[in-house]
Design brief:
7 strands; alpha/beta; seven-stranded mixed beta sheet; Glutaredoxin; 205 residues; globular
Amino acid sequence: MASFGAILKQNVGTVVLACALSASLGLNVYQGLKQRGAFAPPTGVQPGATFPTQFSVLDENGNPAAFSFAADVRPTVLYVLSPLCGWCKRNEGNIKALVTEAGARFHFVGLSTEPKNLKEYVAQNHAPFPVYLVSSQDEVQRLHLGGTPQTIVVNSRGKVQKAWQGAYAEDIQSEIEKYFGVKLPGLQDAITAVDETPKIAVPAN
């Protein structure tokens, strides 16, 4: 009976060929998916980009509404969120503090990228500003609003002046504090932010 080493030696060419074919197939699949954007990381809005000065949105009940940057002489801060986004939840203390401190100088508007739980989110006053729903996922992608939270400063002509993608932690918090001239409390604790189940006190024996 031939030894394992001898069998492997006789078939090493076949093994190498099979590995090469597998690698080639994997590369082709990867390139195909990459071209379709499957591996493309979400990119947020960049400074210098331009929004339409008016575009259609929906209110929390799904009714059509109109939004215009030109309606206010103050710069508009678009806070892009999702009602079920954990990082948005952790960032609530920061965005509320930002509105309190800078609300006289900037017009704050929320844009939700997801309809689920939006009505409840608005009713529970998670955001101290009006919140609208982007009309479709195609529109979300067209406006580069996929990642949440995002904070975007836009002038009355729709031009993006500043933009930050992510919750206000570390460098982002410092940049936002410096830009708006405010002091923020930082991110809420993950457990406190997510766990809102009412606690029942149990009397001690």
